[in-house]
Amino acid sequence: MNYTIQASQRTPALIxxxxxxxxxxxxxxxxKRRIDVVYEALSLAIRxxxxxxxxxxxxxxxxxxxxxxxxxxxxxxxxxxKGIDEIAAVGSLPDLTPKRFSDSAKxxxxxxxxxxxxxxxxxxxxxxxxxxxxDGVTTGEDPEP
Length: 145
What we know:
By secondary structure, the protein is α/β, with parallel strands linked by helices.
């Protein structure tokens, strides 16, 4: 794993998104629910990855994505890691519906499990990224190790 390698079809990047879907994400921010702001940002990031992965009319699996939504529990929105080509073929992201509490520690534990399983196959790939999209209001355990 290397911090200077760029994502390519041969060396795809792994990005794990952790999405806060707690009740506080229903609160308004600049006239929009926080969850809608996060959904728009995530959708934009996915569209940008699709754009960067497209050569001519061919979409290459340059990025591998996992999306974990969390509240009281963690929900794997893609049922595992999917290539950007697979996500683009579906055409839209799953809906994000706010629930109750915010247990980010559970989400980070699940992300760690994914990373532990994937790291042995990523030695020649870019370093994986974990992107935490939250309003910062937590009601669960401290996610620090």
